Sequence to fold (302 residues):
Amino acid sequence: MTDPEKENVEIAEFGLGHLHVEGLQLVTYVNNDRYCAKDLVLFPKQTCPEHLHPPVNGEPGKKETFRCRWGTVYLYVEGEHTSEIQGKIPKGKEEYYTVKHEIILNPGEQYTIPTNTKHWFQAGEKGAIVSEFSSTSRDEADVFTDPNIIR
Amino acid sequence: MTDPEKENVEIAEFGLGHLHVEGLQLVTYVNNDRYCAKDLVLFPKQTCPEHLHPPVNGEPGKKETFRCRWGTVYLYVEGEHTSEIQGKIPKGKEEYYTVKHEIILNPGEQYTIPTNTKHWFQAGEKGAIVSEFSSTSRDEADVFTDPNIIR
Fold:
């Protein structure tokens, strides 16, 4: 990382005050009017809460590809519920984690999440590093299922 | 890399028949209607010939960010000519390498090339690995300065 990038590392705790349970660490390499690329770093079992990327200013919402680089990621998207999911929903937050179609990503594996689709994800026991390739990122437009979340 | 990706490694020799001089090796991770992500692997001193990405079907042409991961990349774009460039233009090809504004990228450094802008690049003595984040890739639309090139 270059110095400007080091200053640009983002800690997202979503206004919930328990970063190690629900939170995310991000490095954004580029985010312009056409595309975006980030690396996401997750602590062991750390969870990014359920959200979706709605249309913004007449443009379709963010579409994104998660490519696992290190560790394991349990990703949940809309679709048929997986009978016994590997991820653990944070205690007391069951109502805010509604999609349960499980995708497991190990290093070198990736999955593309369509626009306007609910998703959440959790790192495995070791944590995880995930590259995110996407259309333009507009975090302030994200819609979270948990009404307590402030982005 | 997963097996489908291994089958998807691309060797671009541009119809010139001297891959180690002018050529490129690519792995495409994703290329959809919104964005694209690839890794480019270059042999020592291997050169990607000068080209630009024009508008396609009323959409602005490809915009791309090169992020050096390993080795050194000498990148040339439109703008004031650098007085003594580090890159070596392939012999006899001088007329097809017209832009000489030099940007040197070492690991962790990156540069974004605007749409519709001529550029070419060459790896340093050790070769290079470069991540390319971009808008949708439509290689068949690329315009090369060298009329002998077939993409």
Remarks:
- The interface with chain A takes residues 1-2, 5, 29-30, 32, 34-37, 60, 63, 65, 67, 108-110, 112, 131, 133-135 of chain B (CB under 8 Å).
